[in-house]
Design brief:
Structural class: alpha/beta
Shape: globular
Helix content: 25-40%
Largest sheet: 2 strands, parallel
Number of domains: 2
Low-confidence stretches: 117-121
Mean pLDDT: 84
Length: 121
């Protein structure tokens, strides 16, 4: 419903809010106070394929991954890293029970994708 995207729009030129529920997206659209600077997308896919690689400065998710199975959460973490720009930030909350399941399932958290170009020191 825009609880996170509306405050973020005060700090960023463009914000995209993603939800699985078209109803929640419709409510968020109706409550949007920032016009075209904020876009809401209904997405029921297990990926963020509508976003290009390295196209997002900040990925922020809160109390979301706890609602999906561990394997789906791992896939989303990979997607978060895929869409984040070099030097961008990925911030997520992961409940301890899901973190344990991911560790058991994958042996580790998903690796950060390799970036092309010079390394920063």
């Amino acid at each position: 419903m825009g609880r996170l995207t509306q405050p973020l729009a005060r700090q960023f030129r463009r914000v995209i809010g993603v939800d699985i529920s078209p109803t929640m997206v419709a409510v968020a659209d109706r409550l949007n106070q920032f016009g075209d600077r904020v876009e809401y997308r209904a997405n029921d896919r297990p990926d963020l394929s509508f976003l290009a690689d390295g196209s997002v400065s900040l990925v922020f998710t809160h109390i979301t991954l706890q609602h999906v199975p561990a394997g789906v959460a791992v896939d989303y973490l990979r997607e978060f890293l895929r869409v984040a720009k070099p030097g961008g930030a990925v911030i997520f909350q992961l409940p301890s029970h899901l973190a344990r399941a991911i560790s058991i399932r994958s042996g580790t958290m998903p690796p950060c994708p390799r970036r092309r170009g010079p390394r920063r020191s």
